[in-house]
Amino acid sequence: MSMFPENDSPTNLAEYSVSELSGSIKRTVEQAFDQVRVRGEISGYRGPHSSGHAYFSLKDDRARIDAVIWKGSFSRLRFRPEEGMEVIATGKVTTFPGSSKYQIVIETLEPAGAGALMALLEERRRKLAAEGLFEQARKRPLPFMPHVIGVVTSPTGAVIRDILHRIADRFPVHVLVWPVKVQGEGSGEEVAAAIRGFNALQPGGAIARPDVLIVARGGGSLEDLWSFNDEIVVRAAAASAIPLISAVGHETDWTLIDHAADRRAPTPTGAAEMAVPVKADLEAAVSALAARLRNAASRQMDGRRQAVRALARALPSLDQLLALPRRRFDEAAAGLGRGLRMNTVNKRRAFERVAAHVRPELLSGRMVERRQKLSDALRRADRLVERRLDQGRSRVAALDAALRTAPSRILARAGRSRDRLAGLALRADTALSADLARRKALLSGQGRILQSLSYRNVLKRGFALVRDEAGHAVKQAADLSEGAAISLEFSDGTIEAVAGKPSQGGETPPTTPPAPQKRKIARPADAAADPPKQGSLF
To answer: The pTM is what?
Structure first.
């Protein structure tokens, strides 16, 4: 409100409050600069705030403007701002009434020209190369003949058709296509997710796991291919356990995924040629090798056959081999009869020579000679026994004389032995008495324990022991049949009884008492038996 009355104003200009003026300026600026593109250098960038918004400035050599990127727009940027980077910002200009400042609210941000993009690309390439993601040692060889090929590309472009046609022409195999965006916001995240998704498939699962991956896109400008320079795509390609072929752009187009992939193809069609061999060439090579194998086997058989023939010619004939053994056999057969006759004659002559020396007189003489030798041996034995008896008598006489001369020593030694024997006998009696007392105490303790564990103590408390006809203890009512004879042993005797019908479950037995049985007091076993009677003498 004005300090002076309206009619006292020196001019006819309208008066505004500060808030009104600031709001009017804000509306005017936002309407006039609703959508602008500003080129400048980033200054004062410190990364996103804790709230997710980013605050910095855009400047050139003569002016400076504050800039802000809200959290939602910041997450959709294709690259992250960096200090000193020249960019082109698209957004709207607005004011901040609280401090009389204006700023640009950026919605999209892109590097200013190819020079800046190339500088950013080179900086990112150096960073990833320093981490070892482009090392040649990390790259894996491609399988010679894959069964399944995974393709990461757009499903609507000509790239996928070229790849499928080329694979079908060379070597038809199973192809899995993971459709993704290959350009624009979020395309890098989709490509990285597709690579990780193929690697997550398990061998032998419902979806076959590819043996090789192809990441493909057609040609385009640096901005069109920028998604394949994203750090997330490069890291996913480097971490892939499945060999990966990069086929992005034309032969002259290079992206960072080309450095991280196991192989780079100049075109998508070239990637299909790298992935599979030519089936016709393989068949021709196999046919050629089969023909060579057959020819080699035929030549080897011919050579072996000629060698066997040459060796057969060098061997002697069968008649030559058997000629000498036949002659030896004939000579041996001819001399066999003559040898038998000569052997018989020789044996007969030897028998006659031996028989000439065997006469009755010779046998009688030898018997007399042997009998004389036996008599001489008996006489020598008699003399030897007599000599041994004389020696024994002399030794006994000497011992008797020695005993008669020294009776006192023998008696003294016998007395000492008697005393020692008496001491040992006393010790033995003492030890025997102590052992007997110990055993009596042990036996008494065992008897008390046996008495405490005896079932007769239980019978004294009002229980009875049931036995069957064989005298075996009955443990269950089911073991007895109706009418079976049983005995009931009490603490003071045993009575005989007859088993009734057993009650079922918890039924109460009949209240009518059974007919009283005559009680019989048990007698000892020896008293129960009749004394033996004397048998008849007749």
So the answer is: 0.42
